Amino acid sequence: MYEDGEEPKNHVRRISVVGMGRVGTAIANAIARRGTATHLALIDVQPNRAQSEALDLQDTIPFLNPLQLTHSTEISASKGSHIIIITAGARQRPGESRLDLLGRNVSILSSIIPPAVKLSPNAVFLVVSNPCDVLTYVAARLAGEKAAHRVIGSGTNLDSARLVSALSRRADIAAREVNAVIIGEHGDSSVAAWSIATISGLPLRAISTDLETEIIREQLLREVRGAASEIIKYKGYTATGVGESCADLAACILSGSIHVRPVTTRIPGGTFPVITESIYFSMPVRLGGSGDMGILVPKLDERELALLSKSASVLLAAQQDADVHLERVLGSTT
Questions:
Q1: What's this protein's family per the entry (predicted)?
Q2: Looking at residue 16, which CATH number applies to its domain?
């Protein structure tokens, strides 16, 4: 592990991507384009999948930064990683309950996380698999007490970027001038923190009074929440946006500086008066070489706090469902 403010020794930056479906492939491609890693391992249980993606990506290297690529079906290929990105997960079968699907995903993560922690004891784990918040909780428990603080989820980083983009278009102002964040669940109960949103450092009302109306805000939030469904309707899947989002998070972690991004992490009970139990969901976090370097707690209005409480309740129920399967997995290893 390197201290924040320093780069990894010899400027070597090792990233492993576990799960080379469309999302894993998009993440690997984005990392390669950005030059975030010097060494990139592609891992998938399907014998030819990681190899084919590595061969395809290899053709881009003459046009990009130098990159050493490896591929494997074994988690052992992740040894010595600075970041391990998890996109592996099960798809829901016809007639399968959400609880059964969660059980299969717990089993998949239990085959990945514990051995990966041993192989890369100082790695930051970035969970992308959905449902992201509850699987980040699962991964943190599987990682063990000493490594749990280095487990984060991609969370609402992409949701927040979609809100920034929507506000940018609405106000006709460059996206880089917009500061807005989605918190809570990466899903239907997500909360837009309107009370802290700014454009060029100014409150939204200073740019346009329309941006403070309930109708416009609900319209923008529907646009954010429906973005994935809209893409899937025409394309069949989403990948490019989440690929860039995760490459952005990886770059933040390896930069040697502190950056703030909304990611899934452990929110201790009492962080907000409406949340009494610890929960995993998205908050603005100081990202550094150890992953979560501290939560930044925004000052929310009463309506936002009420919505956040509902979001936390949804996720707490999901965590409790996960506990049923985790006790079986963790109990078998003791």
A1: Belongs to the LDH/MDH superfamily. LDH family.
A2: 3.40.50.720
